[in-house]
Amino acid sequence: MAFMDTIQMAKERGLIVIVDAKRNDVAATAEAYANAFLGRTRLPWGDEPVFDADCVTISPFLGRDSLNPFLRACSKYGKGVFILVKTSNPGSRDLQDVKEAESGQPIYVRLARTVAELGQETIGKNGYSSVGAVVGATFPEQAKELRQLMPRSIILVPGYGSQGGTAQDAAKCFNPDGLGAVVNASRSITYTFQTPNISEKEYAHLVRNNVEKMAAELNTAIRRHAGMK
Q1: H/E element holding 156?
Q2: Segment holding 72, helix H or strand E
Q3: Domains of the chain by range and CATH?
Q4: Full pLDDT tens readout for the chain, 229 residues
Q5: Residue 133: how many CB atoms within 10 A of its CB?
Q6: Which positions are annotated as active-site residues?
């Protein structure tokens, strides 16, 4: 209920809701996930929206048939997905950096090409697809490579802040025009208070200051990365 209340509160304030659920399963179950997070679920009294988020993160490791229900939901309901490509945790190297025997390239390159291909049919008027990718700021060199492979995909960028990714690292996920990515921060925004006795007003002020500092750092880094003044 807290999850649903948070989504509703955000939507009432005109915010775009990205659910970092990392869901997926065999195709039939994937369809249930897609309907629950992005579309409408069949109930005894009719079809109803459940979570009704705008976007959701999903895992690609069950293959394309598991992704198709989410892609259909994107097209039908005007929603979006972010497919895990190069995640921010150190252990992502265990699988995502393994090189394919045929091409000699890492698995994350194959995933990026799949994202770009799947997104071709949902490119909107502003040039970006409804099919995006998750690429961690903690791997800036890989992020630079992946940005070039997915020029029309919006990249969701975790790893900034507490995980060690800097604004300069995150900027590599943006296109040359300074667009094309959304940077996430959680702990560095909400868990920086020094005392458990902080008041609600003090906490809100602290969070706002952290967000403003983050935005300023990112905007400066993005402008430099894009060659802007």
Answers
A1: strand 155-157
A2: helix 64-77
A3: 1-61 (no CATH), 79-225 (3.20.20.70)
A4: 999 999 999 999 999 999 999 999 998 999 999 999 999 988 888 889 999 999 999 999 999 999 999 999 999 999 999 999 999 999 999 999 999 998 999 999 999 999 999 999 999 999 999 999 999 999 999 999 999 999 999 999 999 999 999 999 999 999 999 999 999 999 999 998 888 899 999 999 999 999 999 999 999 999 998 876 5
A5: 31
A6: 22
